[in-house]
Automatic annotation (TrEMBL):
Reactions listed under catalytic activity: (S)-4-amino-5-oxopentanoate + tRNA(Glu) + NADP(+) = L-glutamyl-tRNA(Glu) + NADPH + H(+)
Residue sites binding substrate per the record: T49, C50, N51, R52, S109, E114, A115, Q116, Q120
Residues in coiled coil: none
Site (Important for activity): H99
Species for this entry: Actinoplanes lutulentus
Superkingdom assignment: Bacteria
Pathway terms, separated by semicolons: Porphyrin-containing compound metabolism; protoporphyrin-IX biosynthesis; 5-aminolevulinate from L-glutamyl-tRNA(Glu): step 1/2
EC number: 1.2.1.70
A GO biological-process term: protoporphyrinogen IX biosynthetic process from glutamate
Record-given protein name: Glutamyl-tRNA reductase
Entry keyword annotation includes Cell inner membrane: no
Length: 438
């Protein structure tokens, strides 16, 4: 088995493509099961957020695994495989490990250094464990990925400013309004993870008064109570839209929540307002209907707009410090991986030795039928001890050597020297560039 990561993010796909690729929580178990049912895919974890959809997989072959995963994604999204390929990036072997560590560290995020991705990775890992789509390789990768992310955030200043997608969106909103957002009224639509993050960020930056609405009023009430905001019934959304300066929409709806008619009515109620209505659409699929974005008096900032703005990049020194952590941890993981790969060879060598001892014992017993059971047991124990002592130092040393760069050659030498028949998966850390994004 080797590691393969395939995905699309704000770097490679626009919101329209991400909307089709996004995987609702209800569909995730079925998709994971479909992935591991493919011929070349043995393990799978799927990460689906507002600006990325990624599959981390353990595969028995690069091209076969790539084809299997692309076919599943194409079927899920309805995007033809030929078109989907233009939106995907592909990482294999060492590159897949490095990518996962960079993602958890916030280096691959739209707002570099944001910590929200850690929770999203943790949730994705737990979802995969619940349907048993992870094995030894992905268990180790995901556990180390989460650890590396925590280390990057705790040991460097990568997230010192508490940046997030919401923070970057508010910066864009401030530019459009041309004023400080402190004291500006706002409405958050959605009380899920992104909605809660939005409320926390708005409160911290002094935006208010703040209102929250959600289809489930209980969740809106709890979130409003926690932050001193006001919960508004979802049925009053249209009226409330006309009473605020900023709207942050972050629902999990598969249909637009802010339709043209709804926004037209809200803008009519704001007739004569000094500033346009700013809608920060952080949902994927988008909450703002495509035909509403050009309404006079309305400014819509969505994920595409944030990607273009590239706000709040951390200092180069902080980024470099995280890159050093990632590089060191990638080496550590590859050392573990090489050590794990030699284990079947060492086990096969010990089995061969045990087989030789057993065969020689049978020959001895046939030649010396006069041996008592106690004598046979003594001879057998002695032979096994001699073999174990002879193999101990070489097998310990070969495990150490295998953990070093180029260590896979030692396993190959053992198999050649002792003519060991060890079933091996394909292992490679470099592949030709695929579709320009390998």
């Amino acid at each position: 088995m080797n590691l393969l990561s395939i995905g699309a993010s704000y770097r490679t796909a626009d919101v329209a493509a991400l909307e089709r690729l996004v995987i609702p929580d209800s569909a995730l178990p079925g998709l994971l099961q479909k992935l591991v049912a493919q011929p070349y895919v043995g393990e799978a974890v799927v990460v689906s957020t507002c600006n990325r959809v990624e599959v981390y997989a353990a595969v028995t072959g690069f091209h076969g695994g790539l084809g299997d995963i692309c076919n599943v994604l194409a079927e899920h999204s309805g995007i033809p495989a030929s078109e989907l390929a233009s939106h995907l990036y592909v990482h294999y072997g060492e590159a897949a490990v490095r990518h996962s560590f960079r993602v958890s560290s916030g280096l691959d995020s739209m707002v570099v250094g944001e910590a929200q991705i850690l929770g999203q990775l943790r949730d994705s890992y737990h979802a995969a464990t619940e349907v048993d789509s992870v094995g030894r390789l992905l268990h180790e990768l995901m556990q180390q990925t989460l650890r590396v992310g925590k280390r990057a955030h705790s040991e460097t200043g990568i997230d010192r400013a508490g940046q997030s997608v919401v923070t970057a969106a508010l910066d864009v909103a401030a530019d459009h309004l041309g004023v400080d957002l402190t004291g500006r009224s706002a409405l958050v639509i959605g009380a899920g993870a992104m909605g809660a993050l939005s409320v926390a960020t708005l409160t911290r930056t002094g935006v208010g008064p703040l209102r929250i609405t959600n289809r489930s009023m209980d969740r809106a009430d709890r979130l409003a109570e926690a932050y001193g905001a006001v919960a508004v019934p979802f049925e009053e959304l249209e009226r409330t839209l006309g009473e605020v300066d900023i709207v942050v929409s972050a629902t999990a709806s598969i249909e637009p929540v802010l339709t043209r008619d709804r926004l037209t009515a809200a803008l009519a109620a704001r007739d004569g307002a000094e500033h346009p209505l700013i809608v920060l659409d952080l949902a994927v699929p988008r909450d703002v209907a495509p035909d509403a974005a050009d309404l006079p008096g309305l400014v819509v900032v969505d994920i595409d707009g944030l990607a273009a703005s590239r706000r709040a990049l951390p200092a180069a020194a902080e980024t470099a410090a995280v890159e050093q952590i990632v590089a060191s941890e990638v080496d550590n993981f590859l050392g573990w991986l090489r050590g794990a790969e030699i284990a079947p060879t060492v086990a096969a060598l010990r089995t061969r030795a045990e087989d030789v001892v057993s065969a020689e014992m049978r020959k001895l017993i046939s030649r010396r039928p006069d041996f008592t059971e106690e004598q046979r047991a003594d001879v057998s124990r002695t032979l096994h001890r001699v073999v174990q002592q002879l193999l101990h130092s070489p097998t310990v040393r070969v495990r150490q050597l295998a953990a070093e760069p180029g260590g896979d050659q030692y396993a190959a030498l053992l198999r050649e020297l002792f003519d060991l028949d060890v079933p091996l998966a394909t292992h490679a850390n470099a592949v030709p560039e695929i579709g320009g994004k390998a």
